[in-house]
Amino acid sequence: MAQYSLEKDKIKILLLEGVHQSAVDVFQRAGYSNIEYHKASLGEEALQTAIKDAHFVGLRSRTQLTDNVIAKAEKLVGIGCFCIGTNQVNLKAAEKHGIPVFNAPFSNTRSVAELVLGQAIMLLRGIPKRNAAAHRGEWLKNAIGSFEARGKTLGVIGYGHIGTQLGILAETLGMRVIFFDIEDKLPLGNAQQVHTIEALLSGSDVVSLHVPETKQTKDMIGAKELAQMRKGSIFINASRGTVVDIPALASSIKENHLAGAAIDVFPVEPKSNNDEFISPLRGLDNVILTPHVGGSTLEAQENIGIEVAGKLVKYSDNGSTMTAVNFPEVSLAQHTGTSRLLHIHHNRPGVLIKINQAFAEQGINIAAQYLQTTIDIGYVVMEVDSDQGSKALEQMKLIEGTIRARLLR
Ligand SMILES: NC(=O)c1ccc[n+]([C@@H]2O[C@H](COP(=O)([O-])OP(=O)(O)OC[C@H]3O[C@@H](n4cnc5c(N)ncnc54)[C@H](O)[C@@H]3O)[C@@H](O)[C@H]2O)c1
Ligand SMILES: O=C(O)CC[C@@H](O)C(=O)O
Question: Which of 112, 195, 374, 405 is close enough to 294 for a disulfide, judged by CB 3.0 to 4.6 Å?
């Protein structure tokens, strides 16, 4: 598939799930006015219709970009996840079609850490159950099951951007912090790494999960792991719903093994705010249930809008793919005085040589060349004399192994 870069007002940007206005502002400031904006996510059929002629799509965690949807999005050039998680996108399929996927790896991490810390304090004090009782007209004024955070042990599973910030915040309250991670991590503050999940579970008063959704983290916490937690301890998950066996968690709470839990993410989440939320945890007074809002603060959403829209604009304008999660990363400054060509190809021996040969035979002068590869694809960016851009694109199209080629204006 080869294409000339379109006029900016012909480039369709599909924004879903109410991404922040800051994203729209970034696109508009960069000259992109053809924006289709939806407040909610779209089901597969509606999504296929809306994405069919879109060049860029922006989404959050609800929209599923499956292999099937991506295959039918014939014009799609780039995907922006306006969040951290990218598990809702079939990254391999996007790569196969030569489509980079961008996200915002930092912008909402502080928001999650703050929420989790607040939940830990509330749960240690038994507040959710006292709050629920008061709403029913009951008055639970006593100190039973009510503890300070000071001196308690917080166990963090997944000591990344969120886990580390949570650890530091918890230490300011006088909590002791231990963590379990598959990587050896530099402990911040006085945190200590433990080397088995069992040591973490049995050694903590509050356990909080901050791992990504992967094959290894699926059902990472089930009945066996919950039984390894201390009696009367607290469990928090604001990572991904697939990580925890929810019926097993509900049993552990009902049997009074755990004193309480806060759950922000669920294996199946309602598609929109109008759909019913169904969970075996409903009705349990000592469980805080939140609708996947760990990262939903106005500060975070505004920053995410700016960050991800900025990355899509840079890719559209300059071909820069820095921080793409599924794609060779090429950092490029703005080009002036030359035509820039983007060529995405299957990573097989000889593709670059063939492009260079074809250009040499046609007398096309290469002013600059940048190449990066992953196991499966190669991404080469070339600059040629301005009057030779169209001819160069025609030559690129003929190269065997081409997935996409694009000429920037
Ligand atoms: N609730 C929300 O609104 C919300 C907001 C932001 C992020 N999240 C979720 O939180 C996750 C974590 O975010 P982050 O920014 O801290 O990510 P991160 O990539 O910085 O950290 C994840 C950590 O988990 C570790 N890890 C991976 N697999 C593991 C395993 N099997 N066992 C133990 N450790 C493992 C990694 O080594 C890494 O240190 C995200 O992937 C996202 O799914 C949720
Ligand atoms: O905003 C969302 O829908 C997802 C938030 C969070 O889970 C993330 O991955 O950043």
Answer: 112
User: Given 110, 176, 292, 406, which residue is catalytic?
Assistant: 292
Q: Are strands 192-193 and 101-102 parallel, antiparallel or unpaired?
A: unpaired
| Torsion (CA) 201, 204, 207, 210 in degrees, nearest 10 | -80
Alpha-carbon torsion angle 356, 357, 363, 365, nearest 10: 10
pLDDT digits (tens, 9 = 90+) for 24-61: 999 999 999 999 999 999 988 999 999 999 999 999 99
Residue ID of nearest Cα to ligand 1 atom 8: 239
Position in ligand 1 atom list of the atom nearest CA 111: 5
| ipTM higher than the 0.85 cut | yes
- Please tell me which residue in 36, 114, 198, 269 is annotated as part of the active site: 269
Helix (H, G, I), strand (E, B) or coil at 383: strand
225 SS3 class: helix
Q: Give the CA distances from residue 282 to residues 217, 250, 264, in Å, rounded to whole numbers and listed in that order.
A: 24, 9, 13
Question: pTM score, two decimals?
Answer: 0.93
**What token pair was written down for 124?**
């240690």
Ligand 2 neighbours by CB, cut-off 6 Å: 60-61, 83-85, 108, 295
Tell me if residue 148 is catalytic: no
Q: Could you identify the atom of ligand 2 that is nearest to the CA of residue 265?
A: 7
